[in-house]
């Protein structure tokens, strides 16, 4: 009952970008290389290339977001596309219009690409399966499932600093269970062939059979950080801080917070990453977040080039689709 | 009402597991009942003869669980539409869980369902009454009145009772009235709003997950209460191998409990959800391959004695949403026999045992007089061609629900005739 990979067109090129899982190393490297070629655009006086002129991109956000939505918008504008931002509060759809109705309406307005964020896992796949063939879907985060552009901008940042993936040990720290970012990072890192991916957190925040993702599980922060090249801290959602999963943010910080002391267990040139927004004093100490090893703000900058790369690649595959019909 | 015919089914291979019958014989039916098996009695006048050469003739199937959607969700299906689909699938008796809207917690609702079924005339319906009022798990239903209204047992359907004191009292009260309790073992807290099995696939997909313990913890608690109260109890829709083993141990220790499994649990696993396929969204969830194999083993050992459809028809929109927002359930009446015949082809079960799991065993669990071709029994008969290939398509399905993960599968074994009390309710030309 396995369907073909709906992310790829029949020539194996990117048509939708829904998850890292199932994509080849070659394609991921192509995304990184394309992003590299776009990263100069922002430094020019005219920060635009005409690649997507005349195309309409809809940012369809069913869940609030500042950073991701803004960088998608900037990326689209730098590619000269027209951008429509739609924030659909979850309640608006539950009041009547179904997700599919919303999509069909937007489709009727002749849009070319949907950038979608939704709080339910699998929404981007669902949309990709039901849109007209000329529309590309980019997943900007679906539930706990995937956030592939975030993962790729993280890979871009890692490559900028470390050049090669193969020798790296990477530690991902925190709430792996609920994190779409962690899932996409793990797929990207293993596809790009890093030496080792570790996930670190209390058992309550590690998903079942996590090892099947190709990672090593650590419950002790210091042990897990020993000699790693890259540390990725995850955001701890407020609603998880007290209850069945964790007793308190205080205890969490004591056991899993990244401080100058715990950072010292990693390699001396290890970089510190975080997808943002950060909880200072919960998962990361301010001194580390703002310190010399932190590349957190660079990640944000790189987000634009990576999203430009993904959008232009997906759109060029559907340009060729038009050519063949 | 048609006058009841004298009917003769000739040259078919008659399999009646309840009576240990398996051989080519003729069956004579008169006045809605089995009149003779083997030689036709002298002077038997035949209005209609069915030539069953090359076909298998068995008791009409008894399905332990089918949602008919009426009353309350007629936009999904109706008693008329689903009993018609049942007839097409060789099913003559359907057990209807009490989670209709309104709930079957008053005699009026039970009577409404039975009268609608009688009016449609395609299949018998035996309703289960609600164990608690409104299935809310807060107060006992009027079980004695429900029993008088022909509810053959009581159940809280898929709504877990979290208050064990109340569950204990409900069991005691059901035992008082000689009612069997049908339990859906699920711990609501451990389920934690999950929508698929907790394991490697849920981890990959990031879907809220249901651990194995959501079922096993409930089975453990319920076994303790069954033993204490002495109620007759049946476990519905097992999904884990471990729960089946726990029930096997309890049976070994002398606790008279029974269990069933939905046919899809014997084929599908968590792997089938791997691309967010909402047609595979079911509760209890599809588990691992080990669980599937364990359920098959429990079936061969007799721990699980019945296979049911767990039919849950839906309108197309119910499945058109992101996975966790879709309604769980499969439209399954018409895949019940074909899936079970596949078990026979795969050498999991001999044909006689497979048919027993669809006829006499569920009938005994329900405590009803059905599922046999005993002389004098209601002539509920299923005749099928074991060699005939056919494909499940929207055009071949009779159910209003087209929600099946088996769409476009090719199956071997097609029902050709279904008789309900001696009347032909389905016939393939």
What does this molecule look like?
The complex is a heterodimer of chains A (325) and B (429). The model of chain A has no long low-confidence stretch (mean pLDDT 91). Chain A is 39% helix and 14% strand. Chain A has 2 domains: 25-146 and 301-320, Rossmann fold (3-Layer(aba) Sandwich); 148-296, Aspartate/ornithine carbamoyltransferase (Rossmann fold, 3-Layer(aba) Sandwich). Chain A is globular and about 55 Å long. In chain A, helix 1 (25-38) crosses helix 12 (296-324) and helix 6 (148-162) crosses helix 12. Chain A contains 12 helices and 9 strands. The two termini of chain A are 29 Å apart. In chain A, strands 7-6-5-8-9 form a 5-stranded parallel β-sheet. In chain A, strands 2-1-3-4 form a 4-stranded parallel β-sheet, sandwiched between helices. Chain B has 429 residues and is of the alpha/beta class. Helices cover 28% and strands 23% of the residues of chain B. Chain B contains 12 helices and 19 strands. In chain B, helix 8 packs parallel to helix 9. The longest helix of chain B is centred in the middle third of the chain and has 17 residues, at 213-229. Chain B starts with 6 loop residues before the first strand and ends with a strand. The model of chain B has no long low-confidence stretch (mean pLDDT 96).
Helices and strands, with pairings:
The complex is a heterodimer of chains A (325) and B (429).
Chain A: H1 25-38, E1 56-61, H2 67-78, E2 82-87, H3 90-94, H4 99-108, E3 113-118, H5 123-130, E4 136-142, H6 148-162, E5 169-173, H7 180-191, E6 196-200, E7 216-218, H8 221-225, E8 230-233, H9 249-256, H10 260-263, E9 271-273, H11 286-289, H12 296-324
Parallel strand pairs in A: 1-2, 1-3, 3-4, 5-6, 5-8, 6-7, 8-9
Helix pairs in contact in A: 1-6, 1-12, 2-12, 6-7, 6-12
Chain B: E1 7-16, E2 21-30, E3 33-37, E4 48-51, E5 56-59, E6 61-63, H1 79-88, E7 91-96, H2 107-120, E8 124-127, E9 129-130, H3 143-148, E10 153-155, H4 164-176, E11 180-183, H5 188-191, E12 196-197, H6 200-205, E13 209-210, H7 213-229, E14 233-235, H8 241-252, E15 258-262, H9 289-301, E16 306-308, H10 333-345, H11 351-356, H12 360-366, E17 381-391, E18 410-420, E19 423-427
Parallel strand pairs in B: 1-4, 1-5, 6-7, 7-8, 9-10, 10-11, 11-14, 12-13, 14-15, 15-16
Antiparallel strand pairs in B: 1-2, 2-3, 5-17, 17-18, 18-19
Helix pairs in contact in B: 1-2, 4-7, 7-8, 8-9
């Amino acid at each position: 009952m396995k369907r073909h990979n709906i992310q790829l067109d029949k020539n194996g090129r990117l048509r939708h970008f829904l998850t890292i899982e199932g994509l080849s190393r070659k394609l991921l490297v192509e995304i990184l290389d394309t992003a590299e070629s776009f990263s100069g655009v922002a430094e020019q006086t005219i920060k635009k290339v005409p690649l997507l002129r005349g195309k309409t991109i809809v940012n369809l956000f069913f869940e609030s977001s500042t950073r991701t939505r803004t960088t998608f918008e900037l990326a689209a504008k730098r590619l000269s596309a027209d951008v429509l931002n739609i924030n659909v509060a979850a309640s608006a759809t539950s009041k009547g219009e179904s997700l599919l109705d919303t999509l069909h309406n937007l489709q009727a307005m002749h849009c070319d690409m949907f950038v979608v964020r939704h709080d339910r896992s699998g929404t981007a796949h669902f949309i990709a399966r039901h849109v007209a063939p000329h529309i590309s879907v980019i997943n900007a985060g679906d539930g706990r499932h995937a956030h592939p552009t975030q993962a790729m901008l993280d890979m871009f940042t890692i490559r900028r600093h470390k050049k090669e993936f193969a020798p790296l040990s990477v530690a991902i720290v925190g709430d792996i269970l609920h994190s779409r970012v962690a899932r996409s990072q793990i797929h990207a890192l293993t596809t790009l062939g890093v030496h080792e991916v570790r996930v670190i957190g209390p058992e309550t925040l590690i998903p079942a059979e996590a090892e099947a993702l190709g990672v090593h599980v650590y419950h002790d922060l210091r042990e897990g950080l020993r000699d790693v090249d890259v540390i990725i801290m995850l955001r701890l959602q407020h609603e998880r801080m007290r209850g069945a999963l964790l007793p308190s943010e205080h205890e969490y910080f004591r056991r899993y917070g990244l401080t100058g002391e715990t950072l010292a267990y990693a390699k001396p040139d290890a970089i510190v990453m975080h997808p943002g927004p950060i909880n200072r004093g919960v998962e990361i100490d301010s001194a580390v977040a703002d310190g010399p090893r932190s590349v957190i703000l660079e990640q944000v900058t790189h987000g634009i080039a990576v999203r430009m790369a993904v959008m232009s690649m997906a759109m060029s595959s559907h340009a060729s689709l038009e050519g063949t019909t | 009402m048609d006058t009841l015919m004298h009917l003769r089914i000739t040259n078919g291979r008659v399999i009646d597991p309840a009576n240990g019958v398996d051989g080519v014989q003729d069956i004579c039916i008169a006045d809605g009942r089995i009149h003779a098996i083997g030689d036709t009695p002298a002077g038997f006048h035949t209005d209609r003869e069915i030539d069953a050469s090359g076909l298998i003739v068995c008791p009409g199937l008894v399905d332990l669980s089918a949602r008919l959607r009426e009353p309350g969700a007629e936009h999904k299906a109706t008693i008329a539409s689903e009993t018609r689909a049942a007839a097409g699938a060789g099913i003559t008796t359907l057990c209807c869980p009490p989670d209709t809207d309104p709930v079957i917690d008053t005699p009026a609702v039970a009577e409404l369902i039975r009268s609608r079924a009688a009016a449609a005339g395609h299949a018998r319906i035996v309703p289960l009454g609600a164990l608690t009022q409104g299935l809310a798990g807060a107060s006992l239903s009027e079980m004695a009145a429900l029993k008088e209204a022909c509810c053959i047992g009581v159940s809280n359907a898929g709504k877990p009772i979290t208050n064990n004191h109340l569950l204990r009292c409900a069991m005691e009260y059901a035992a008082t009235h000689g009612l069997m309790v049908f339990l859906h073992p699920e711990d609501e807290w451990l389920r934690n709003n999950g929508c698929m099995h907790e394991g490697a696939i849920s981890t990959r997909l990031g879907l809220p997950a249901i651990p194995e313990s959501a079922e096993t913890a409930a089975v453990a608690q319920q076994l303790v209460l069954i033993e204490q109260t002495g109620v007759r109890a049946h476990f519905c829709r097992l999904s884990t191998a471990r729960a089946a083993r726990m029930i096997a141990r309890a049976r070994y220790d002398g606790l008279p409990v029974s269990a069933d499994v939905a046919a899809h649990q014997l084929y599908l696993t968590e792997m089938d959800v791997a691309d967010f396929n909402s047609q595979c969204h079911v509760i209890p969830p599809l588990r691992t391959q080990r669980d599937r194999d364990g359920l098959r083993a429990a079936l061969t050992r007799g721990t699980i004695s019945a296979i049911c459809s767990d039919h849950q028809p839906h309108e197309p929109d119910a499945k058109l949403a992101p996975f966790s927002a879709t309604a769980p359930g499969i439209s399954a009446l018409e895949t019940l026999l074909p899936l079970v015949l596949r078990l026979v082809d795969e050498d999991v079960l001999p044909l006689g045992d497979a048919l027993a799991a669809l006829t006499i065993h569920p009938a005994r669990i329900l405590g009803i007089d059905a599922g046999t071709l005993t002389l004098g029994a209601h002539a509920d008969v299923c005749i099928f061609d074991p060699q005939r290939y056919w494909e499940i398509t929207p055009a071949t399905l009779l159910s209003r629900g087209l929600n099946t993960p088996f769409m476009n599968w090719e199956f071997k074994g097609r029902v050709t005739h279904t008789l309900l009390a001696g009347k032909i309710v389905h016939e393939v030309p």
